[in-house]
Design a protein that fits this description.
Blueprint lengths: L3 E3 L4 E2 L5 E3 L4 E3 H10 L6 E2 L5 H4 L1 H4 L11 H12 L2 E2 L1 H13 L1 H22 L6 H9 L9 H5 L8 H5 L2 H13 L3 H8 L17 H16 L11 H13 L5 H11 L37
This protein binds fe (ii) ion (2 copies).
The site of one fe (ii) ion has 6 residues, from helix 6 and helix 12.
Length: about 300
Protein backbone atom coordinates (compact mmCIF):
# COMPACT_ATOMS: atom_id res chain seq x y z
CA UNK A 1 0.00 0.00 0.00
CA UNK A 2 1.26 3.44 -0.90
CA UNK A 3 -0.87 5.29 1.64
CA UNK A 4 1.88 7.00 3.65
CA UNK A 5 5.37 8.42 3.35
CA UNK A 6 8.20 9.14 5.77
CA UNK A 7 9.54 12.67 5.33
CA UNK A 8 13.08 12.76 3.92
CA UNK A 9 13.69 16.25 5.35
CA UNK A 10 11.95 18.92 7.43
CA UNK A 11 8.89 20.30 5.67
CA UNK A 12 8.67 24.11 5.84
CA UNK A 13 6.65 26.79 4.10
CA UNK A 14 8.15 29.60 2.02
CA UNK A 15 8.70 31.68 5.19
CA UNK A 16 10.62 28.87 6.89
CA UNK A 17 7.72 27.99 9.18
CA UNK A 18 8.04 24.30 10.11
CA UNK A 19 5.13 22.15 8.93
CA UNK A 20 6.52 18.72 9.91
CA UNK A 21 9.85 17.27 10.98
CA UNK A 22 12.11 14.93 9.00
CA UNK A 23 11.17 11.33 9.81
CA UNK A 24 7.49 12.15 10.44
CA UNK A 25 5.02 9.79 8.79
CA UNK A 26 2.45 11.54 6.59
CA UNK A 27 -0.56 9.35 5.84
CA UNK A 28 -4.03 9.87 4.39
CA UNK A 29 -5.45 9.46 7.92
CA UNK A 30 -2.86 11.84 9.40
CA UNK A 31 -3.75 14.47 6.79
CA UNK A 32 -7.41 14.19 7.77
CA UNK A 33 -6.54 14.62 11.44
CA UNK A 34 -4.24 17.57 10.68
CA UNK A 35 -7.09 19.26 8.82
CA UNK A 36 -9.51 18.71 11.70
CA UNK A 37 -7.11 20.21 14.25
CA UNK A 38 -6.06 23.19 12.09
CA UNK A 39 -7.00 26.76 13.00
CA UNK A 40 -7.44 28.52 9.65
CA UNK A 41 -6.64 32.24 9.70
CA UNK A 42 -8.28 35.17 7.88
CA UNK A 43 -8.53 35.12 4.10
CA UNK A 44 -8.24 37.63 1.29
CA UNK A 45 -9.94 37.73 -2.12
CA UNK A 46 -7.71 36.70 -5.01
CA UNK A 47 -8.97 39.86 -6.76
CA UNK A 48 -6.92 41.88 -4.24
CA UNK A 49 -3.65 40.05 -4.91
CA UNK A 50 -0.94 39.85 -7.60
CA UNK A 51 -2.89 36.95 -9.14
CA UNK A 52 -5.73 39.22 -10.29
CA UNK A 53 -3.76 40.19 -13.42
CA UNK A 54 -2.70 36.59 -14.08
CA UNK A 55 -6.28 35.31 -14.38
CA UNK A 56 -6.38 36.57 -17.98
CA UNK A 57 -3.38 34.42 -19.02
CA UNK A 58 -5.11 31.04 -19.58
CA UNK A 59 -8.27 32.75 -20.87
CA UNK A 60 -6.31 34.37 -23.69
CA UNK A 61 -4.13 31.33 -24.42
CA UNK A 62 -4.52 30.23 -28.05
CA UNK A 63 -4.38 26.58 -26.96
CA UNK A 64 -7.57 27.06 -24.93
CA UNK A 65 -9.50 29.06 -27.56
CA UNK A 66 -12.20 26.38 -27.86
CA UNK A 67 -12.78 26.24 -24.11
CA UNK A 68 -13.06 29.98 -23.60
CA UNK A 69 -14.48 30.84 -27.00
CA UNK A 70 -17.06 33.43 -25.92
CA UNK A 71 -16.47 36.61 -23.92
CA UNK A 72 -19.29 35.41 -21.68
CA UNK A 73 -17.47 32.14 -20.87
CA UNK A 74 -14.25 34.05 -20.23
CA UNK A 75 -15.98 36.52 -17.93
CA UNK A 76 -17.71 33.74 -15.97
CA UNK A 77 -14.43 31.88 -15.36
CA UNK A 78 -12.65 35.12 -14.41
CA UNK A 79 -15.41 35.88 -11.90
CA UNK A 80 -14.93 32.49 -10.22
CA UNK A 81 -11.16 32.82 -10.00
CA UNK A 82 -11.29 36.39 -8.70
CA UNK A 83 -13.72 35.24 -5.98
CA UNK A 84 -11.23 32.68 -4.59
CA UNK A 85 -10.42 33.39 -0.94
CA UNK A 86 -7.18 32.20 0.65
CA UNK A 87 -4.95 33.21 3.55
CA UNK A 88 -1.98 35.40 2.71
CA UNK A 89 0.50 32.59 3.45
CA UNK A 90 -0.86 30.63 0.49
CA UNK A 91 -0.70 33.64 -1.84
CA UNK A 92 2.93 33.90 -0.72
CA UNK A 93 3.46 30.25 -1.70
CA UNK A 94 1.88 30.91 -5.11
CA UNK A 95 4.08 33.99 -5.53
CA UNK A 96 7.12 31.83 -4.76
CA UNK A 97 6.01 29.31 -7.40
CA UNK A 98 5.61 32.13 -9.93
CA UNK A 99 9.10 33.44 -9.17
CA UNK A 100 10.94 30.11 -9.16
CA UNK A 101 8.94 27.91 -11.52
CA UNK A 102 6.89 29.91 -14.06
CA UNK A 103 5.75 26.77 -15.91
CA UNK A 104 4.21 25.41 -12.71
CA UNK A 105 2.51 28.76 -12.13
CA UNK A 106 0.99 28.61 -15.62
CA UNK A 107 -0.08 25.05 -14.93
CA UNK A 108 -1.88 26.10 -11.73
CA UNK A 109 -3.70 28.96 -13.47
CA UNK A 110 -4.66 26.82 -16.48
CA UNK A 111 -5.92 23.98 -14.27
CA UNK A 112 -8.06 26.42 -12.28
CA UNK A 113 -9.50 28.03 -15.43
CA UNK A 114 -10.15 24.70 -17.22
CA UNK A 115 -11.74 23.10 -14.13
CA UNK A 116 -13.97 26.16 -13.63
CA UNK A 117 -15.12 26.02 -17.26
CA UNK A 118 -15.82 22.27 -16.99
CA UNK A 119 -17.95 22.83 -13.90
CA UNK A 120 -19.72 25.76 -15.56
CA UNK A 121 -20.91 23.57 -18.45
CA UNK A 122 -21.97 20.90 -15.97
CA UNK A 123 -23.76 23.00 -13.36
CA UNK A 124 -24.23 26.49 -14.82
CA UNK A 125 -21.92 29.49 -14.88
CA UNK A 126 -23.27 30.96 -11.64
CA UNK A 127 -22.88 27.72 -9.70
CA UNK A 128 -19.12 27.08 -9.74
CA UNK A 129 -17.78 27.23 -6.16
CA UNK A 130 -14.66 29.42 -5.90
CA UNK A 131 -13.37 26.84 -3.38
CA UNK A 132 -13.00 24.36 -6.24
CA UNK A 133 -11.08 26.92 -8.30
CA UNK A 134 -8.85 27.41 -5.24
CA UNK A 135 -8.35 23.64 -5.06
CA UNK A 136 -7.32 23.55 -8.71
CA UNK A 137 -4.94 26.48 -8.23
CA UNK A 138 -3.21 24.71 -5.33
CA UNK A 139 -3.40 21.05 -6.40
CA UNK A 140 0.34 20.78 -7.15
CA UNK A 141 1.57 22.78 -4.14
CA UNK A 142 3.45 19.66 -3.03
CA UNK A 143 5.84 20.14 -5.96
CA UNK A 144 7.23 23.12 -3.99
CA UNK A 145 8.68 20.63 -1.52
CA UNK A 146 10.53 18.47 -4.09
CA UNK A 147 14.17 18.97 -5.08
CA UNK A 148 14.60 21.43 -7.99
CA UNK A 149 16.24 18.76 -10.20
CA UNK A 150 12.98 16.77 -10.15
CA UNK A 151 10.69 19.73 -10.72
CA UNK A 152 12.69 20.98 -13.74
CA UNK A 153 12.00 17.62 -15.37
CA UNK A 154 14.38 17.88 -18.34
CA UNK A 155 15.78 14.38 -17.91
CA UNK A 156 13.96 11.05 -17.66
CA UNK A 157 13.36 10.10 -14.02
CA UNK A 158 15.67 7.40 -12.73
CA UNK A 159 15.55 4.87 -9.93
CA UNK A 160 14.00 6.33 -6.82
CA UNK A 161 13.26 9.69 -8.46
CA UNK A 162 9.84 8.54 -9.68
CA UNK A 163 9.01 7.47 -6.14
CA UNK A 164 10.16 10.82 -4.82
CA UNK A 165 7.97 12.59 -7.38
CA UNK A 166 5.02 10.44 -6.30
CA UNK A 167 5.29 11.93 -2.80
CA UNK A 168 4.07 15.40 -3.88
CA UNK A 169 0.34 14.66 -3.27
CA UNK A 170 1.13 13.83 0.39
CA UNK A 171 3.36 16.88 0.83
CA UNK A 172 0.86 19.29 -0.71
CA UNK A 173 -2.14 17.83 1.12
CA UNK A 174 -0.34 17.95 4.47
CA UNK A 175 0.72 21.56 3.90
CA UNK A 176 -2.79 22.62 2.89
CA UNK A 177 -4.46 20.68 5.71
CA UNK A 178 -2.31 22.55 8.24
CA UNK A 179 -3.21 25.94 6.75
CA UNK A 180 -6.79 25.53 5.51
CA UNK A 181 -8.31 22.77 7.62
CA UNK A 182 -10.92 20.64 5.80
CA UNK A 183 -11.08 22.12 2.28
CA UNK A 184 -11.44 20.79 -1.28
CA UNK A 185 -7.83 21.90 -1.88
CA UNK A 186 -6.60 19.25 0.57
CA UNK A 187 -8.56 16.55 -1.27
CA UNK A 188 -7.45 17.75 -4.71
CA UNK A 189 -3.78 17.85 -3.66
CA UNK A 190 -3.99 14.32 -2.25
CA UNK A 191 -6.11 12.71 -4.98
CA UNK A 192 -5.35 14.31 -8.35
CA UNK A 193 -3.12 11.43 -9.50
CA UNK A 194 -5.41 8.65 -8.25
CA UNK A 195 -6.59 7.67 -11.75
CA UNK A 196 -9.33 5.21 -10.90
CA UNK A 197 -6.99 3.46 -8.47
CA UNK A 198 -4.27 2.98 -11.10
CA UNK A 199 -2.30 6.05 -10.05
CA UNK A 200 -1.08 7.21 -6.64
CA UNK A 201 -1.42 7.30 -3.70
CA UNK A 202 -3.74 4.54 -2.52
CA UNK A 203 -6.87 6.10 -1.06
CA UNK A 204 -9.47 4.69 1.34
CA UNK A 205 -12.29 5.85 -0.97
CA UNK A 206 -12.77 7.37 -4.42
CA UNK A 207 -12.23 11.12 -4.73
CA UNK A 208 -15.28 13.35 -5.09
CA UNK A 209 -16.53 14.24 -8.54
CA UNK A 210 -15.17 17.79 -8.24
CA UNK A 211 -11.72 16.44 -7.39
CA UNK A 212 -11.93 14.24 -10.50
CA UNK A 213 -12.72 17.38 -12.51
CA UNK A 214 -9.56 19.00 -11.13
CA UNK A 215 -7.58 15.85 -12.01
CA UNK A 216 -8.81 15.87 -15.63
CA UNK A 217 -8.21 19.63 -15.92
CA UNK A 218 -4.66 19.14 -14.59
CA UNK A 219 -4.00 16.34 -17.08
CA UNK A 220 -5.33 18.42 -20.01
CA UNK A 221 -3.31 21.46 -18.90
CA UNK A 222 -0.12 19.38 -18.52
CA UNK A 223 -0.50 17.87 -21.99
CA UNK A 224 -1.22 21.18 -23.73
CA UNK A 225 1.58 23.19 -22.10
CA UNK A 226 5.33 23.14 -22.84
CA UNK A 227 7.41 20.68 -20.87
CA UNK A 228 11.18 20.18 -20.81
CA UNK A 229 10.82 16.45 -21.57
CA UNK A 230 9.08 16.79 -24.96
CA UNK A 231 9.57 18.80 -28.14
CA UNK A 232 6.12 20.42 -28.25
CA UNK A 233 2.86 20.42 -26.32
CA UNK A 234 -0.02 18.28 -27.55
CA UNK A 235 -2.62 20.29 -29.44
CA UNK A 236 -6.07 20.27 -27.73
CA UNK A 237 -7.32 17.53 -30.05
CA UNK A 238 -4.23 15.36 -29.45
CA UNK A 239 -4.61 15.82 -25.70
CA UNK A 240 -8.27 14.81 -25.87
CA UNK A 241 -7.40 11.75 -28.00
CA UNK A 242 -5.01 10.62 -25.26
CA UNK A 243 -7.46 11.32 -22.43
CA UNK A 244 -10.30 9.51 -24.23
CA UNK A 245 -8.00 6.49 -24.66
CA UNK A 246 -7.11 6.66 -20.95
CA UNK A 247 -10.79 6.87 -20.02
CA UNK A 248 -11.44 3.79 -22.19
CA UNK A 249 -8.73 1.95 -20.26
CA UNK A 250 -10.25 3.18 -16.98
CA UNK A 251 -7.09 5.07 -16.08
CA UNK A 252 -8.89 8.40 -15.71
CA UNK A 253 -12.41 9.44 -14.77
CA UNK A 254 -14.56 9.03 -17.90
CA UNK A 255 -17.22 11.52 -16.73
CA UNK A 256 -14.55 14.17 -16.21
CA UNK A 257 -13.19 13.58 -19.72
CA UNK A 258 -16.75 13.82 -21.09
CA UNK A 259 -17.19 17.16 -19.33
CA UNK A 260 -13.92 18.39 -20.87
CA UNK A 261 -15.00 17.34 -24.38
CA UNK A 262 -18.42 18.92 -23.80
CA UNK A 263 -16.74 22.18 -22.74
CA UNK A 264 -14.40 22.09 -25.78
CA UNK A 265 -17.43 21.65 -28.07
CA UNK A 266 -19.04 24.77 -26.63
CA UNK A 267 -21.08 23.26 -23.79
CA UNK A 268 -24.39 23.19 -25.69
CA UNK A 269 -26.89 20.41 -24.98
CA UNK A 270 -26.60 17.73 -22.36
CA UNK A 271 -23.30 16.16 -21.37
CA UNK A 272 -25.17 12.95 -20.54
CA UNK A 273 -25.76 12.13 -24.20
CA UNK A 274 -22.27 13.03 -25.38
CA UNK A 275 -20.38 10.29 -27.25
CA UNK A 276 -16.63 10.29 -27.76
CA UNK A 277 -15.54 10.50 -31.44
CA UNK A 278 -13.61 7.52 -32.83
CA UNK A 279 -11.24 9.14 -35.30
CA UNK A 280 -7.96 10.68 -34.16
CA UNK A 281 -7.04 13.98 -35.77
CA UNK A 282 -4.88 15.48 -33.05
CA UNK A 283 -1.14 16.00 -33.19
CA UNK A 284 1.36 14.68 -30.69
CA UNK A 285 4.85 15.96 -29.86
CA UNK A 286 7.57 14.62 -32.20
CA UNK A 287 9.82 13.85 -29.21
CA UNK A 288 8.45 12.89 -25.79
CA UNK A 289 10.67 11.64 -22.97
CA UNK A 290 7.91 11.63 -20.39
CA UNK A 291 8.66 9.09 -17.64
CA UNK A 292 5.56 7.30 -16.38
CA UNK A 293 5.57 7.18 -12.59
CA UNK A 294 6.00 3.45 -11.95
CA UNK A 295 5.43 1.46 -8.74
CA UNK A 296 3.96 2.37 -6.40
CA UNK A 297 2.15 4.35 -9.02
CA UNK A 298 0.99 3.61 -12.51
CA UNK A 299 -0.09 7.12 -13.48
CA UNK A 300 0.67 8.53 -16.92
CA UNK A 301 1.15 12.16 -15.97
FE1 LIG B 1 0.53 16.56 -9.49
FE1 LIG C 1 -1.07 19.09 -12.02
Amino acid sequence: MFDRITLRSDLSDCHGQLLARRGAVVSTEGIREAALSARPGPTRLLAETFLADDVALPLGDHGYRYLFRSPQAQAAVARVLLAVELPDVLYDELAAVKATDPARHQHALATAAVASRMLAVAAGESRVPPQVAAAALLHDLGMRHLPARLVRGGEPLRGGEALEMAEHPFLGAWHLARVLGPHPAVDAALSHHWRNGQGYPDLPRRPTRTVEVVAVASAFAALTQSRAYRSDPFDPRGAVDLLVAEAGAERIDAYGVKLLVHALRGGQGEVRVLRFGRSRHGTEPAVNHYTPIAAPARGFL
